[in-house]
Amino acid sequence: MKKSIQLLVFIFVFVLFGQQTIAQDCTSVNTSRDIELDGSSEKEEIKLNVDAGVKQLHLFINSTISTGFLTVEIYDPKGKKRGYYTVESQTKSNAKKKETVCGQLQKQISDPMKGDWVVRLIPKNVKGKISIHSGQVQEKS
Amino acid sequence: MLLLASVSVWAQSNSQAKAEIRGKILLDSIWHPVVYISHIPTFYDMYTMSNNMIIAESPLDEEGNFHFLTSFLPEKDNLYRLHISKKGAPAASLIIGGKDENHLFFIANNESEIFISNESPTNPVSRFKIEGYRPNDDLRSIDDIVATSENLENPPVSKEFVSRTINEKLRIMADTSSHPIVSLYALYQSNFETTYLENQLFIENYLKKWEDEESTYFQSIRSRFIQEKKSNFYIYFIIGVVFFVMGIVIQQYIFRRRKRNRAQLQTLSIQERKIFQLIQSGKSNKEISEEYNIGLSTVKSHVSNIYTKLNIKSRKEAIDF
Question: Which among A57, A111, A131, B90 could bridge A100 via Cys, Cβ 3.0 to 4.6 Å?
Answer without folding.
Answer: B90
